[in-house]
Specification:
about 160 residues; alpha+beta; 5-stranded antiparallel beta sheet; 5 helices
Length: about 160
């Protein structure tokens, strides 16, 4: 009921608007209007913040579905693998949320890192989700130049 411009209550707001409100908040947390990288949250941090501290602002059912669709490691997350390599999450595997598609981060700016389907690489696990400011200056620079995040939502999975 605190929303702009009419202060509508939850049940007075269309379901599509609830989805847009949640998606907009998530995007604003990950990509704030102030370009200071210290203000940007990682996808993992943004979802955690929305669920732990802001969930009272959203339709609970839609927020849970949103989090379920993006997975434990949302696209764009920077992760450390069990073999100590760094990677970014390209897309999730809804049936196996701990085994996303990832792309290794190279220190070489001239080539893209290897893409790994973690469902097929059972010897590798994710050990940590990290913020971009924990990377070396070279790695941060490479990520900024190559930054691209895509979202794919499986219709069947999103409605369950």
């Amino acid at each position: 009921g605190s929303g702009y411009p009419k202060g509508l209550k939850c049940e007075q707001i269309d379901a599509l608007s609830h989805i847009l409100i949640i998606a907009n908040m998530y995007d604003n947390l990950c990509n704030p209007s102030n370009p200071n990288p210290a203000l940007a949250k990682s996808p993992y941090e943004a979802l955690s913040l929305m669920f732990a501290q802001q969930r009272h602002l959203f339709d609970q059912s839609i927020l849970r579905r949103f989090i379920k669709c993006l997975g434990i490691y949302p696209p764009g997350s920077i992760i450390r693998l069990s073999d100590q390599r760094l990677a970014t999450v390209l897309s999730t595997n809804p049936q196996q949320p701990l085994r996303p598609f990832v792309q290794l981060i190279n220190d070489n700016d001239d080539e893209d890192g290897l893409i790994i389907d973690m469902r097929e690489s059972m010897e590798i696990n994710i050990t940590q989700c990290i913020k971009a400011d924990q990377l070396t200056a070279i790695q941060q620079s490479i990520l900024r130049r190559k930054q691209r995040t895509s979202y794919f939502i499986d219709k069947v999975y999103a409605t369950s």
